Amino acid sequence: MPRGPRFSSPRRRSRPKAPGSSATRRPDRAQGILPLRPPTRSGAQKIRHSDERPPIGRRLARFLLVLTAAVLLANAIAGERGLVQTARVRRAYLQMADSIARLQRENRQLALQADRLRHDPSAIEELARRELGLIRPGEQLFIITDRPVP
Are the C-beta atoms of residues 77 and 83 closer than 8 Å to each other? Predict the structure, then answer.
């Protein structure tokens, strides 16, 4: 016997109720056995007393959540990329930046001095007098010391 289209909505047939309980009723073989559906909730919840402890699953979940938060906080503060390490690296970065700036200034001064020594003969003479203690021919050198008079 052909039935309607396969995906059509099922029609409910009204059958007369047999005397006795519904547990003695046999399922229709052509219809098949459907799994039991869980009862629908009406929205009412069980009320616990204030002194009653929450279920173990909820306590365990709360404990694991607090433990995870504590581990993440500790890692954020003292971990490899934590707050303490970040402050240390920032301090080292600032020291290196200052050192680089100082070395760049010194490098510019030395480059200017080298250029002056290459092109200015008076700079060479000044350096020879100061560093080596040299004098020109005909000059006299006086060395003055602070000695108390006897």
Answer: yes
Burial 117-135 (b: 16+ CB within 10 A, else e): eeeeeeeeeeeeeeeeeee
Give the tokens for residue 66.
């607090």
pTM of the model: 0.44
Which residues, 6+ apart, have CB-to-CB distance to 75 below 8 Å? Answer: 82
Query: What CA–CA distance (Å, rounded) separates 30 from 34?
Result: 12
The dihedral sign for the CA sequence 4, 6, 9, 14: positive
How far, in Å, CA of 69 to CA of 75, rounded?
10
* Count of other CB atoms within 10 angstroms of residue 91: 10
| Model pLDDT for residues 21-69, shown as the tens digit of each residue | 555 555 555 566 666 776 676 777 777 777 888 888 989 999 999 999 9
Residue identified by tokens 């909505």 is 9
- Burial label, 142 (beta-carbon count in 10 A; 0-12, 13-18, 19+): exposed
Q: Give me the amino acid identity at 36.
A: L
CB-based contact 24:31 (threshold 8 Å): no
